[in-house]
Specification:
single chain; 450 residues; alpha/beta; 7-stranded mixed beta sheet; globular; binds zinc ion
Length: 450
Amino acid sequence: MSDIYTRLVSNVLFPLQERLKHHDTVKVRQGMEDSQWWPREQILALQAARLRAFLADIGAHVPYYRDLFAQTGFDPARVSGSADLQALPFLTKSVIRQNTDALRADDAQGLARFNTGGSSGEPLIFFIGTERVTHDVAAKWRATRWWDVDIGDPEIVVWGSPIELGTQDKVRLIRDKLMRTELLPAFEMSDARVEGFIARIREMRPRMLFGYPSAISHIAGYAEKKGIRLDDLGVKVVFVTSERLYDHQREVISRVFAAPVANGYGGRDAGFIAHACPSGSMHITAEDIVVEIIDGEGRVQPPGVAGEIVVTHLATRDYPFVRYRTGDVGVLSEDPCPCGRGLPVLSEIQGRSTDFVIAADGTVMHGLALIYVLRDIPGVASFKIVQETTTLTTVFVEPGPLFEADDVGRIQAGLKRRLGDAVTIDVKVVDVVPAEASGKFRYVISRVAA
Ligand SMILES: [Zn+2]
């Protein structure tokens, strides 16, 4: 085995690794086009070689890791695979906040500052270097090519937090490079805006739409209600990301655009972690991203067991993301995908941990348990449920034409059945359900820690 692997490493892995280090999206993507078909062991061997080089690099150049490795005696040269990461601490949002500057490589250039709302609403400031942008773009375009959409094809992105759409030129530049595309700002969704979006989509005839499922399904639902066709534009795929994709959203998007809906899992902070292939698997960008699944005590779990998704992004040497805790729940699968790609598969991504709510008696349940109550009431056009405490839940309700006075009582009764009789259900009937500060729309938010 060592002979084969030595030859493999010298003849194939190192040249590919060099190609992957190039700050050129096309070259990186071409490298990834080859490696996606390799046997899984070969992809993991490449990942291990890249992990070793990455850790040596950040140990030399990033103050936080230089100090950490010195204190703990961690030797990057001895790393032979992702299991060696277990000697290193997790990177949490609070660690990033406390070490915002010490996480920056001493030779980093052209870092772009990002500021996300985060699921807790607390802002997180971090930086993204050119290498990482290049790799995330390449990972995205490799995945869209699985769906017959190539670089340069017209694309509409339904995206955007007010922060990202601000005047930070560098952020805008990176975003344009990421997207190569026209952007529809999704954080403001008045009827007039949505009608404008639909007109623009019809005019541009994009080959792909990309963005939040809540926003795209809202546009699709609006077009359907108004009898405006969007199924004759030649859309090949609708890629949704950043939020959980609900079945009813997939159905309306797919019906209205006459195109499949593909899930992309990842975010600005964690990178483009996994993308759906036409066979239905979520393939991890394993050349660049190491995924670990951990339990509540931080212990790494084997394939098939659900736990929190933790990622190490190997193209982040300028501002490293090592064992970054995403707060999302997922399961690694060892089953080969029928599409033939050797890229490992992340199955059953169960959404943000804040999608789970906790009943007064301590029962943890998925937010869907509450969503079904609201969706069963025909008078409710749109809603958002916020679990403030175990004894208080607020429901924002946007009434539709069928809304009845009794509906408030029905919502209260339905939610009490699940959360507990003693829980106060405060129903607020509003003109427009407020989006999050980030611009994402979420149906259920729990401020109660699971
Ligand atoms: Zn596949």
